User: Fold these one by one.
Assistant:
Number 1:
Amino acid sequence: MSVLQFTIPPLPHYMMGGMSRLDPGGKHVSRQNIGVFDLLFVREGCLYIGEEERHYEVRQGDALILRPDSYHYAIQECDAMTSYYWLHFQTTGSWSTYDAKLPALASEQQPEANPYAVWSYSTYTSQILIPSFIRVFDRNRTEELFDQLVKLNESFYSSGANWQQQLIFQQILRELSTSIEKEESTSPVLTCANRAAAYIRMNYKERITLQTLGEELNFHPVYIARCMRKVFGVTPMEYVLSQRIEQAKLLLLQTDYTVARIAEDVGFNQAAYFTACFSRAEGISPRNYRLRYAFG
């Protein structure tokens, strides 16, 4: 399963949406690097869509999210009347994709945000996982939410309607995320990987080893590593590193802590090693990251 991971805050935000219909012989438009996420939810019929080298048959009750940095195209014409909801959304925060075939987008390729320093407090970040392609668990509820979203287009210039659309959009993302949770009951691999990821997110500051994970989750360490590699496309230790780097980025922007203190606060024993890991992941040193974003 291909999974999109969004770091929050900030939450992904809705941009525009609607409903489309295709007659038999019609097909979805082909586009490349459109700069926004494109979420499709099929009401009836089937869309035949490719994204890079992966092909999808998006049938009634299926949802597909196309990435902003990829090429997507029709792989064949619709063989029946097909109707589907579509919406575009984006995030100003960091995101990544975990999949055996589609590579994660490097953080330096993300659209640059416009963060600023907040000296009086710190914000805890977390991750939400949204499937790129899934059979929605509660199809009727999801269709109802999309219908409400589209109807509010009639009040496009109303700030109240726009606010309501953002709230509905978050409920739609929740429905997709919940569909992953429902699959866990029949997927021990997904259950193991998500439990390991949740443990790491809660304990990234501590010393975490494969043996630690095995003892905490009551799974064999090799099995945990295999599950995380299959679901997220990274090893447990790579996932630990990504969590530490994300928290370090936040501290660089929101505090005046030294690099050495930040390194210690997020779980690194040596500031030099932290700097090397941060630079390798972000393409810029911690000090220059702070200068670029916190001070303009």
Number 2:
Amino acid sequence: MAKAVNSRSVEPEPVKGPVDKAMEVLEALVEPGGPHRLGEIARRTGLTKPTVHRLLRTMADHGFAEPAEGGSYRSGPRLLGLAAAALNDGRALELARPVLADLRRRTGHVALYAVRHASEAVYLEQSEPAREYRMSARPGRRTPLYACGVGLAMLSVLSDHEADAVLRSAPLEARTPHTLTDPAALHELLVDAALNGYAVEDEYDEPDVRSVAAPVLNGDGRVVGAIGISGLTFTMAPDSVEVFGPMVRAAARTVSSGLGARTPILGVVDTTSRGERE
């Protein structure tokens, strides 16, 4: 019998309104490597240069963008202030920061905190990065949930319906030769993650990088984020995951407890549903 493949109905692309265009320009503006030239932002957004220029000028007038050298633009002071205020107002992030610092100190690897937005993981905080190498999973970066440790950790505690909405709504892109793109294989991985209390990602997002992550839950038992560590494969050997996994799980549960979550019992998983997903 032929295997079912990812499919989606063909629907007309929604017309972009002024707010949609402004959000796309703002998103391109804060991408790493700034300041960004007008032409670069136009290419990233698919908008015309006159439209991008008009939106950037409006953002600059309100302090959300700031002109830089050579006709480029960077994030403005008002945008930076709003971002700082939003981050400081988050209880989960407040609890996560000291936990990340401790995890970094005890494991020697970069520790990360991320949240979910639709089908992506958005990194919000990173412990002091290692000087020997630079990790791409820095604050502000977005990665598909299925391709990163923190994303898999969050998926592992979603309902079957929610997880399927992420894994089967559209074809999954292979970001490296090791990326799992088969929903059935990913479901098996999620079952293991639910049983262990942590997920392992092995070069799914970028070559030579391995990560271990665990979900953070709130008082209602809903996932609000994930804590993880990430390192080069030669510094995080597969057998070390058995040591680091429980450490990351304990760190995530520390934050979850601070948010009022009940600490789950290790090894308890609903095998009648998640364990039998094909």
Number 3:
Amino acid sequence: MLISLVNWSHMTVAKQILITMRPHQWVKNVFVFSAPIAAESIFNFDVLRDSFIVFLIFTCASASVYLVNDLFDRESDSLHPMKSSRPLASGDLSAQTGFSIGILTASTALTVAFVYGFQIGLILLVYLIINFLYSSFFKRIAYMELVLVGSGFSLRAVVGGLSTETELTFTFVFVISAFALFLVSCKRYSELVSYPTSMHRYSLTKYSERSLTLVMVMFSSSGIIGYIIWVLKSDNSFLLLMIVSCVALLLGTVRVYFLAVKGRSEDPSMLIVTDPFLTLFTIFWLASFFGAVYV
């Protein structure tokens, strides 16, 4: 009986750790595949293997980031109607355990990254430092915190290119960065209109609906223009399909903006599977893009 209780306790702790690592957010790590996909080399076995290894490294690193972030935010999260159920905020997972697992996962990711390649390890170290600084201090500084969160997407794309020896163009990195900042600003807008600003995120007191609208419009427009420039500069012969991909991207961007205004973009990574319109636009974009690049 005692052994069963101990085993059940261990299973419960493991479950709480996994929840805190937020597996549904690991989808963000697919950005490491973006450079070889755009370069038409993702189906090369060596490229696919290297991309997948980096994906696993970033998954481990991002898990540690979520653990450490929830440690810093456990008091403010306890005041949030949804985040209060998180294991660290609710007390279901102790701070000591969360900290220990966070250090373990970060150390593991860094060790593997540096063994795999010095540049990969260096970028991952920068990613972890940025996120630590964000969680400990910079998340309180409006606009700066948008840049820091958005940088995570750009670093994933860059490390995906370096690990596969894929050429990274300025236009490619610009488009990724612009849309990353657009998604982060949509998330902040949704939080601003959905919850009292003093409830869980100090930086929200420094934003206004107008300022975040300007940020969303600026970065979404920049991303779309950058994508169109990339399409026009590419030597792809299936121009019609690339034009279709531009239209699908535009419709998807407008849809995310609309959801943000309605306060429904607090978790942008889940919108693709929860919003039927965005799911449809994403399918159209994937089909047209891959059709133009790989057929």
